[in-house]
Amino acid sequence: MKNITLPVLSLAFIALSVTANAQVDTKTDSHTIGIGIPEVALLDIEPSATKNITMGFEAPTEAGLPITPPADNTSLWLNYSSIKAATAPDNVRAVSVKLNALIPGVDIKVTAAAKAGVGSGTFGIPSAQLTLTAADQNILTGIGSAFTGNGATNGHNLTYNVNYGNAVGSTANYADLVASTATATVTYTISDN
Q1: Partners of 121 in the β-ladder
Q2: How confident is the model at residue 139, as a pLDDT?
Q3: pLDDT tens readout for residues 99-119
Q4: Are 164 and 67 in contact (CB under 8 A)?
Q5: Measured between alpha carbons, how far is 81 from 67 in angstroms, rounded to an integer?
Q6: For residue 47, is the peptide bond before it cis, meaning its omega torsion is within 30 degrees of 0?
Q7: Is 60 exceeded by the pLDDT of residue 15?
Q8: The pTM is what?
Q9: Mean pLDDT lowest for which of 12-16, 28-32, 80-84, 142-146?
Q10: Rg of the chain, C-alpha, whole Å
Q11: Are the beta carbons of 101 and 88 closer than 8 angstroms?
Q12: Cα separation, 61 vs 67, whole angstroms
């Protein structure tokens, strides 16, 4: 009897070992997949190679007339890419604009057009025409997760208007004009509201 019990116990132990290591499959299975989406806040002015513009006034040819302002400049485009953080309270961004130095007697105004070209998402809403100052002013608001496309003809076309003081809607004074060649830097910044 002892000889029979040992082989039976050995077979039972082998059967339990195989059962314990066997995997039970079902009709369904699952696994996780992690997706990483970065926070993004980028902007630039296009075309980047020619984004510095010159707008010169013309002298009158008849005594008693004022200088003639330059034609509006519409050569520049504002491009941006934005993905907000999940923890942001209002989930939108704005683009502000400012001027580093005022030019006496001259108003520099800018308008951003509605989004044009390729891209997708929640684009910024342009403000009315702004007279540039040293203080940040929002030119676009309500930007969500969006990309405007890159390069000229994509994004928001910028229209610059330069006029002398005392013109209609001007805050500058013609009496402050001085013959010179001045340069001012216009800075755009994308940030959370």
Answers
A1: 146
A2: 98
A3: 999 999 999 999 999 999 999
A4: yes
A5: 41
A6: yes
A7: no
A8: 0.83
A9: 12-16
A10: 33
A11: no
A12: 9
What is the tens place of the pLDDT at every residue in 21-45?
567 899 999 999 999 999 999 999 9
Q: Which tokens is 116 given? A: 């044009």
Tell me the torsion sign for CA atoms 99, 85, 82, 91. negative
Both tokens of residue 68? 């003639």
Tokens linked to 172: 């500058």
Residue indicated by tokens 């500058």: 172
Residues 6+ apart with CB under 8 A from 14: none
180-186 own/partner pairs: CB under 8 Å, 24+ apart? 182/101, 182/103, 182/106, 184/99, 184/100, 184/101, 184/102, 184/103, 184/108, 185/99, 185/100, 185/101, 186/97, 186/98, 186/99, 186/100, 186/108, 186/110, 186/132
| Token pair recorded at residue 76 | 């520049």
Amino acid present at 140: L
Cβ 164 vs Cβ 57: under 8 Å: yes
Dihedral sign, Cα of residue 172, residue 176, residue 177, residue 182: negative
